[in-house]
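Why do we care about 3D structure at all? Because function follows from shape, and shape follows, mostly, from sequence. That is the central idea of this module. The next example makes it concrete: a single protein chain, its amino acid sequence, and then its structure expressed as tokens.
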Amino acid sequence: MKETAKKGLRGVAARVPGRGKQRGGESVETKRGKAPPSRQEEGRQLLEELKVRGAVVFREVIHLGPQVLRLARAVQTGVKPLKDDDPEGAPLDLLLRLSEGLGFEGSYVNILRGAAKSFATKGFEAVVIQDILDSAGVSPRTFYQFFANKGEVLAALYDLVIYVWTDAMRTGLESKKASATDKLQHTIATILGGYAIAGDLVRVLETEAVRPGSPLRPLERERMRRECEWIGPVLSEIRGTKLTDEWVRLRIAAVRAAALELGLGAHSTEQDLIRGGMLLTQLLGVGEK
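And the structure:
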């Protein structure tokens, strides 16, 4: 990685002013309702910043391919960042410092982290607000200043994770220099990278997004529309024929379903990701006549 690029990427980890934790003994039940607009707006602004900065970091780690598992395990076990002179360690170092420096001591992001851990461990339906409070280390009052219920937290997490994921996908697919095959490989690497880093959480988000009546359904439909627009032309070029929107949509849906069933995560091996990539490529119809 060039020195200028390193400096620019290090800037991603610039610290956002922290929001100190607020403690209190209010009961969860007494604080339900709409959050004060000022704190809601504060949370929305921070979420947008996290989306943009997180997208930069995720794009940097995609090139690691199966080695992204090394990154995921390091983040989960809390190992020290690798040295700057280790080119493969640069993305890992950035991600770790991003996690520590983007206001992660603040209440809003602590709630996101606590909810992500709770949802990934128990699933959305089984989680209660107290689980999130315990994991985030915030009071009920602080929680309800930002969110009215756990569904709003889930929506914020979905917005963050899917934005980062689809931004990386879009960037690769819109490249003017890459071949259609390279773009397809980038798409598969992006899907696998998301699962390798946060497989359990991603599965909860994906499952909830397609549940009938889920508040995430509108976001999911818009995501599917965009992905079909991006991936359709690439698959058409590879197959040498214009593919219908329905064909592309069904293939993407099949890939998502398979990615869920593969059960990939930080516990997976590099061979698991390689085999998963081969399966997803086949499901996209590459190689078919």
